[in-house]
Amino acid sequence: MGIFLYGIIKQVDDISQLEDSALLRFEVLFALVFLAVLAGRFIYMTKTQTSALPADTSHFQRQAARFVHWGMYASLAAIAITGLMIGGLFSLGFKSGFLIEAVTELHGLTVSLSYLLIALHIAAALYHRILGDGVWSAMTPFWKEQ
Predict the structure, then answer these.
(1) What's the number of domains the chain is made of?
(2) Less Cβ crowding at N or C end of the chain, within 10 Å?
């Protein structure tokens, strides 16, 4: 979560900023570290964690939870991958034109999608906090259900 927030705060505002080779190298390194942390978390979570949803949770709700979780991982990975593509294209001289504009647009769309999925995840967590079904306590280290 912290590394994602840092990425949002320090984002490149204009692609021409990548003319600074030190910034470009930092952006590439940041994206690679982000992908490594994300992959590590994904592997850890899929190997060690099980759903905290109660047994009587509807099929639709289970599928929605699965979609949001997988979607968050996919969109976050896509942010880093499209960022790496932008950096690669820029370093190869594609500083304007259809290709880099398309990848930049895709990058922006994946950022927006991640915001939407994170908002859905937070809304679902709050919903389960109100229900008091134990899901909130499994998700958060604070404000535990009684």
Answers:
(1) 1
(2) C
